Amino acid sequence: MRALPPLLVLTLSLAFAGACAAQSSAVTIEQIGSGNSATVDQSRGAGDVSLNQTGDDNIASVRETGAGYGTAALTQTGSSNLLSLLQENGLNTAVVDQEGVGDQAILKQRTNGVGSNYAALTQVGNGDMASLTQNGQGNSSTQVQIGANDTQSVSQTGDFNQVSYTQIGNNLPDLKVVQSGGMKITIVQTGH
Length: 192
Fold this sequence. Notes:
By secondary structure, this protein is an all-beta fold.
């Protein structure tokens, strides 16, 4: 006997105003498993969101707002992962891959209108937590967590900041990266 497909929990809110009405938005959501939840809210601007949830009890929330065009490619494989993404104005791009159990990621990208920011986050272990806030334009962040119970936080304000923050071991502390205006940093932590 073949099982029924899992229940899809999906909320889409697409709204267009003024000149943005000529732009288009695309949302693709694929869910395999049970108890997964996806919310996508696109208002005023336009954007592309691709979300794949494989596993159980994953939660993803995406909000793209303001003038501009946001792009997001999001994958949650495992269970009980939480992802929250906010992109405001400009041409922001986010690529997120969560492959564990109980990982959490909160990303916020804002531009002053015409600029762009880029964020890439990979979480492979269990119980990892990552946060990113980028305000400005030309900022980029690449965050990787491979071990379990690692924490990362990055905050970039101003323009043209770059960060690459990698953690490989377990239970590694948060170095709390804060950058403002044209800064560049690369951090690699290895441990237990």
